[in-house]
Amino acid sequence: MMKVKFNGEEVELEGNPPQVGDQLPKFKLFNQNGEKVKMAQLIGKPLVLSIVPDLQTPVCSTQTHKFNQQADHYPDATFVTISNNTIQQQKNWCGAEGVINLQVLSDEELSFGYATNLYLPNMGVLTRSVIITDATGKITYEEIVADVANEPDYVTALNALEKLTSRVDD
User: Is 94 tagged catalytic?
Assistant: First the structure.
């Protein structure tokens, strides 16, 4: 079992997450209209999954804003933030924060958390991580942040994305 630090304590993930080279497992999430979004609907071009425990906390908010700002520069990629906040909480947060360049999807039912083993059962939240796949859904980059209190390595993630798609500057 993989472990991460949460508030200074070691906690176990649900299981072992998929690795680079693996196919992204099937899951379903919900958009802000309450519509089901399946894994198959997200692939077709490079995909950046930014996974956060709770959008309404400072580090998760920062992480989502950073990827939201970058999404503009990679028109050939899909950027998604996933948390297990409720659809309503996500809707309110996006409205208040002006996040429009990426999709914020709810894993309220934990379909994604269990499919990827990125769920922290003792904490009731997803662990902070970044997964990048190619257009077929094959994982080409993954960072499971060792301490949930820390931000992911944005530069390394975006460099991995640039191997799959080109950056466009304004």
Answer: no
